[in-house]
Fold this protein.
Amino acid sequence: MDDVDVLVVGAGIMGVASAYHIVRNSPRKKVLLVDRYGAPGQGNTGRSNAMFRNTFSSADNQTLADSSIDYYLHLQAAGQDIGLEQIGYLWLMSEAKLSSNERYLAGMERNGIEIKRQGLRELAGALPGLRADGGEESGLLGLPKVEWGVFGPKCGRLDPDKLVRYYAGEFERLGGRIALGTEAESIDPGPTRRLGIDGEPFVWQDWRVEGVKLTGRMDRVVRPEAVVLACGAWGNELLLPIGVDGHVRAKKRQLFSLSARGNAELMRLLRTPGFNALGLLPFVILPKASVYFKPLEEEDAFWVGCEDEVNRQFIDLPDHDLDKYAAEPGYYDRGIKPVLSGYFPVFTKAELKAMWAGLYSYNTADYLPFAFRESNLIVVGGDSGSGIMKGDSLGRVVDALYREEKEAELYGGAPYDASRISFSRRRVEREEWVI
């Protein structure tokens, strides 16, 4: 099949955003987007917590996220419903934790990221049911006393399915093609100048991706001029066999839904006023194990999770069936619930109504995303759980790499050096605010 100029593998947020920006800036190119699932965004994007924030310790993460958020706000304001709600992020911290994070907070303020510090007296009046000392078992659990809050107002949640469908729809409207139920099985490297000798490419030859074998609904070999891999946790499947480091490792992450119906105190907490124009509780991160919870007013429920790092193995080659990574009721009961109910006793009798799991795709070097080009192969990933937050910006960086431009133009017109998040010329600070 020789009618593909650019092949994009993976229709999660980074794949659809990359495909859209490539076809937007190169309208004469024939761009094909493939994904093994039956609809875009059905992998880890669809299982995510669907939150966004610009509050990061790394200046690059701040830039990439802030620009993406601006674009999402633009879409929502223009009438494109992506389920966006600016409920804010609220980190609850001890005095020691705040002190250790002051340099990051100062960096955010220098870079124009809006944050607000709140003392315990203000928090106690604003958060119904907060038990700042963590309760009777705080010593056993090692729960630090809540003494401060750090609030980020330009943060919130959106609907990942609506966001992905927007990009996919615009991509198709501009002439892009999507092949669902289609998997990229393997990559075939070849020499940039073929000599007809068995064993090419040799070590002394320059190489390129010569072909990609597709299986499923589209069963054929395509020979595009460029290939974009946006496979998240599955990128290693295609890269390791050809000797390219995918720089990504996966871990299971779990989410639990707690019903607030029939519990007046939980309903009151859900609709806590004063933090945002919606009159809802913000996304709250507790000072132990980064246990967090967020309100879902339409479900009369809270989604709850945590950092989930201890005793959780890395997965280099994840299974294709995400249902094999099941959420664990005992993990909630014995791990998350004691911390959650320690600080907010109202959750003690909350009903667990649903649970699910997905995979975080970590760049374990510095927990920032990467986008790099080797020959005609472009790889984007390593979002470390924040792909949605930076998806639009990363799509623009991928497009710049495809067009071999030194700078990507982020939403709003700001230039961003496309090599900053590569590996050969990487110039970033390690991210310390990973949830």
Summary: The longest strand covers residues 351-362. The mean pLDDT is 96. The chain has two domains: 6-49+161-248+365-417, 89-152+249-362.
